[in-house]
Amino acid sequence: MASDIPPQVLQDDIETMQTFWAERKQRTSRLYQTAKLAGFLFSIVFLTLIQFLYFGVILKIWGPEKTAVDRDSCTCTCWDTVFKGTYEMGVGRYKHVYFNVTAQTFKMCGLTVVAIIMTYECTSYVVRIALCGRIRYSMLALLVAVIHPHYYSWWMFFGYYNDDFYVQWYHQLLFTLTELFSTALVLSMLDRGVKPTPRKLFTVASISLLHILAGGMDQFVSNVVLGRGMFHQVSRDIAFFSSDFFYLIVAWAELAMLCARENIPASLLLMSLKRDIITSAVIISGVLLILSYI
């Protein structure tokens, strides 16, 4: 059959296909470069804005009224002045930021660098998926809901190192690691081209349930339900509870819609997740038991 086609026609078809694939590759490259630039710019705006919101707005509302600093007469005798080199020694005068050169400072800087890189990679990926028109909005809503818990985790660890206060270290570490794992699962389902799995959705729901139970056992009941907490404690606990509850509802809603789309009976779903349900119950019970002792 190929011998019946004139050589010129074959050559024209080959050139047409080559042109098509070259143009497609060029469009893909342009889209990738655009997404990369947009992700970079969005990351800068996001990281700058969240700092302003937390330090410039939230802390102003949460914290009590502070005495204004007298910049002309204040000094700092606990500052080692190492990072100033030969320019300043002894008792330091006013600075917007003081830091001593210690192992804790190194850990705080390292922690901040890791947080910034992870935030950049996450926001870049979200922007790239959005520009391709493949974003799953339910997962995007979950990512937005978890911004405050992640930022709070970074700030807590920063404060633990800064104050040499480690009583709540392992407690916070548990919440942070499980939150990161849950967020990673949500990111893996952000692309509409990737079908969510019952196991991933169930895991997200289980982690949010763990946080709700652990938070209630920890401070939520005392601060919010019984009204013993201060304003910043009540608002903080409500914010955490709201994001975890939202995660729980959305994960179960997505699981229900998945079953409806795939015509999976509820009984079959429960059977397929039987091992996961048992494992989740054991882990949640064990973690709650551990939290009661730390």
From TrEMBL:
Membrane-spanning parts: 37-62, 105-127, 139-157, 169-190, 245-264, 276-293
Keywords, alphabetical: Membrane, Transmembrane, Transmembrane helix
Keyword tRNA processing found: no
Name the UniProt record assigns to this protein: Hypp3264 protein
Organism from which the protein derives: Branchiostoma lanceolatum (Common lancelet)
